[in-house]
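Re: [ENG-882] Designed sequences occasionally contain unexpected residues at chain ends

Forwarding the minimal case from QA. Structure tokens:
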């Protein structure tokens, strides 16, 4: 059998026989669902942590007890999450904290979202700090509360500044979904491993999912660039 005939046979065995392409499609769908859920959780956690830490930094000498405690909790959270591997966090959540739960979607989304939140918080904190402090002072002088100024004035501008970093975080998160197979959840990488276990041919399944990851990342990057151009156009 020639090289090309062998390659064709591997492709058919890995994608066509018994409609195995559906296994990859289901895995890709699970990866995208995990990414969307984790991104939403990460953004919510990240914004809250960024606001707490920024508020404390701005009032460092006048910060009250509650502000100090909340800031300390946020510092510990970001330090621990950013200082430990994502796979270890998945193992702890899956086999220690939620050892009795079989809701793998919940465990995976929550773990990836908490992990992403630590990085998003630093992204947003840098974005908030890039805004002229005079805007906060101007808003407060007009009678607006701190939370109102943050929601209506500071955060919208910070989002525009950190959009490229947020896009990169989302892409990283999508690729990190390949780790959730350690808790037994089926996603794109596990789909390839399952097919490889049947066909005993690793090349086609792994090259196939590599191409799928690349295509999705390219689409996400295109959407990110398009959104950035639209936001910059609205500033003119």
């Amino acid at each position: 059998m020639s090289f090309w005939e062998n390659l064709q046979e591997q492709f058919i065995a890995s994608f066509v026989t018994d409609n195995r392409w559906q296994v990859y499609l289901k895995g890709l769908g699970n990866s995208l669902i995990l990414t969307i859920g984790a991104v939403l959780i990460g953004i919510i956690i990240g914004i809250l942590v960024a606001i707490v830490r920024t508020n404390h930094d701005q009032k460092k000498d006048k910060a009250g007890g509650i502000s100090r405690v909340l800031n300390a909790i946020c510092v510990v959270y970001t330090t621990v999450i950013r200082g430990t591997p994502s796979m270890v966090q998945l193992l702890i959540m899956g086999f220690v904290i939620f050892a009795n739960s079989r809701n793998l979607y919940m465990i995976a989304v929550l773990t990836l979202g908490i992990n992403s939140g630590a990085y998003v918080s630093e992204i947003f904190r840098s974005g908030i700090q890039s805004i002229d402090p005079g805007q906060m002072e101007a808003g407060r002088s007009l009678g607006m509360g701190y939370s109102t100024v943050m929601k209506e004035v500071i955060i919208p501008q910070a989002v525009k500044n950190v959009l490229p970093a947020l896009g990169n975080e989302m892409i990283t998160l999508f690729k990190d979904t390949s780790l959730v197979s350690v808790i037994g959840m089926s996603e794109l990488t596990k789909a390839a491993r399952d097919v490889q276990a049947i066909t005993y041919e690793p090349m086609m399944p792994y090259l196939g999912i590599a191409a799928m990851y690349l295509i999705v990342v390219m689409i996400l990057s295109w959407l990110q660039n398009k959104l950035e151009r639209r936001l910059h156009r609205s500033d003119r």
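QA comment: On inspection the terminal residues look reasonable. The CA atoms of residues 43 and 232 lie 21 Å apart. Proposing we downgrade this to a documentation issue.
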